[in-house]
């Protein structure tokens, strides 16, 4: 089964966005428990927490973006950001690498984990 890769920044962004939606859904479900104030409060708090969480994740993306290396994608010509040794273009999902040794090799996200200290 081929794994679908996408840019790390895009992935985190999708995650943050889904956290917002999950938060709203949880709060919405809480409204159905109006007769049980404790249940409703719990749901509201959980929903609130996941919205806060997404704000934190968005902040984290901002921090990551400043550390990411800007490169011009050879495939679509747009400027994209590379996180780690290998990443995907944010626009066309072209695999990009900062390590010349990995150039031409098949894209593998595991390269990021093999970083030696
Ligand atoms: Zn591209």
TrEMBL record:
<keyword id="KW-1003">Cell membrane</keyword>
<protein>
    <recommendedName>
        <fullName>UPF0295 protein AF331_09945</fullName>
    </recommendedName>
</protein>
<feature type="transmembrane region" description="Helical">
    <location>
        <begin position="39"/>
        <end position="61"/>
    </location>
</feature>
<comment type="similarity">
    <text>Belongs to the UPF0295 family.</text>
</comment>
<dbReference type="Pfam" id="PF11023">
    <property type="entry name" value="DUF2614"/>
</dbReference>
<keyword id="KW-0812">Transmembrane</keyword>
<dbReference type="InterPro" id="IPR020912">
    <property type="entry name" value="UPF0295"/>
</dbReference>
<keyword id="KW-1133">Transmembrane helix</keyword>
<feature type="transmembrane region" description="Helical">
    <location>
        <begin position="12"/>
        <end position="33"/>
    </location>
</feature>
<keyword id="KW-0472">Membrane</keyword>
<dbReference type="GO" id="GO:0005886">
    <property type="term" value="C:plasma membrane"/>
</dbReference>
């Amino acid at each position: 089964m081929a794994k679908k890769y996408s840019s790390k920044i895009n992935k985190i962004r999708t995650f943050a966005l889904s956290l917002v939606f999950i938060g709203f859904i949880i709060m919405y479900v809480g409204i159905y428990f109006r007769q049980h104030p404790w249940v409703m409060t719990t749901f509201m708090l959980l929903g609130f927490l996941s919205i806060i969480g997404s704000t934190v994740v968005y902040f984290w993306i901002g921090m990551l973006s400043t550390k990411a290396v800007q490169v011009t994608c050879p495939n679509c010509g747009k400027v994209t950001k590379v996180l780690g040794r290998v990443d995907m273009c944010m626009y066309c999902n072209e695999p990009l690498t900062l390590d010349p040794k990995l150039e031409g090799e098949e894209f593998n996200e595991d390269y990021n984990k093999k970083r030696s200290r």
